[in-house]
Amino acid sequence: MTTYIAGWGVLGPGLPDARAARAVLLGERPYRDEGVRPPVVEGLSANEARRCPTSARYALDVGWQALRDAGWDPAGVVTVLASASGDLEIADKNCQALARSEIALSPTLFHNSVHNAAGGYWGIATASQASTTSLSAYDASFAAGLLEALTTVAPGRRCLLMAYDFPAPAAFAAARRISAPFAVALALTADRPAGPCASLSWQWTRCDQAVVFAGMTDAALEALRVGNSAARSLPLLQGLSERRATTLSWADAADMDWGLCVTLSFAP
Amino acid sequence: MDSRLAMTRYTLTTAFGRGLSANRAGLLSGRSVLSRHILADGTGCAVGRVAGLEGVGLPGALARYDCRNNRLVQYALEADGFASAVAAAVRTLGAEGIGVVIGTSTSGIAATEAAYRSPRFAEHSVLPADFPYRETHNVFSCGDFTRRLLGVRGPALVVSTACSSSAKAFATAARLIASGVCRAVVVGGVDSLCDTTLYGFHALNLLARGDPRPFGADRDGIGIGEAAGFALLGPADLFGKDAPLRLAAAGESADAYHMTAPHPEARGAVMALAGALAGAGWRPETVDYVHLHGTGTAHNDAAEDLALTTVGLAAVPASSTKGAIGHTLGAAGICGVVFAALAMEENLLPGTANTRVPDPRFRSRLLLSGESGSIRRALVNTFGFGGSNCCLALAWDA
Question: What is the pTM of this model?
Answer without folding.
Answer: 0.98
